[in-house]
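Course exercise 7: structure representation. Students receive a sequence record and must write out the corresponding structure in token form. The form below is the worked example handed out in class, using histidine kinase (341 residues). Read each field label carefully; the graders check that inputs and outputs are placed in the correct fields and that the protein name is recorded exactly as given.

STUDENT ID: A-19
EXERCISE PROTEIN: histidine kinase
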Amino acid sequence: MDSSFASQLVEALPLPAFFVDANQRLAGINADATKILVTALLERNYLMSVRHPALQSAIETCFQDGNKRSLRLTMNVQSLEMVYGVTVASVGSSGVLVSFMDQSSAEEIGQMRRDFVANVSHELKTPLTALLGFIETLRGPARNDDKVRDRFLEIMEREASRMNRLVRDLLSLSRVEAEERIPPAEHVDMGQLLNTVCNSLAPVAENKGTSIRLDVAGDVAVTGDRDQLMQVFTNLIENAVKYGGDGDVDVQVTMLPRDPAVRGAAVLIAVKDHGQGIDPIHIPRLTERFYRIDSHRSREMGGTGLGLAIVKHIVNRHRGRLRIESVLGQGSTFSIILPAA
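STUDENT ANSWER:
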């Protein structure tokens, strides 16, 4: 095959590809494949450009028997580890065509799914193990001990509630993800909504010896899903009460004439606590599923590790932005920016 035709052939392909002619020379390579091989010496033996042993072997064997081969390769491309599905196919007596399909995203999604299943299994296994242990004890030595039985039943109820919260949050996360591409259309009065949330959480704050202060600047409304927004601010304000130390929680609502994040008029809702703050190293990962700064404390407080992941997806559905700011020793501010109605 003529080298100019080989170059035109691989350039026409939508995938990274190169062609090795019958003399085992690199006869053509497109721009995307050049990024993968790094060194592309046209009209020279392909071994001078192809350095991956498994790919070298596949090309060599294809020349020998003419059979198509598929392999999965992990390669370093521009300082990134990429996963490719590679096809090595004979083009009759003309040579061998090699093409690459980027599978990095699919691999990442698969790993996220595996991690998610592992995390869910772990989160359910811990309370289940405790429940089974208490049941076994209640059937045996503690059968006739009223005090022990009552104490164990109280713990069992707490563990069962923990599993119930986890299942509830998993279902909620699934629903939110399914609806993420469907824009909400309800007119929501944010002052009224936040007032409802703050009143419902007032007993929690009182039990902790703190209070929730709400400051709304006039009539503020957004186009959204009232139930989902209620879930967002219940989560953020409750977290501020539980983890924000002994200081009060401030909820401030401000109208912004224009915000670049939403490309127009916006509503800024900031939830600020005066607790110990968050180490900056944790902030980028706070919205990951099951990520916790202090796993033991979070579980003691009834957290499932899914709250901020749900918040992130709901805010994305509303074309809004979540911003987290924190200073160690001074507290944290979780801000939600939503397009104004």
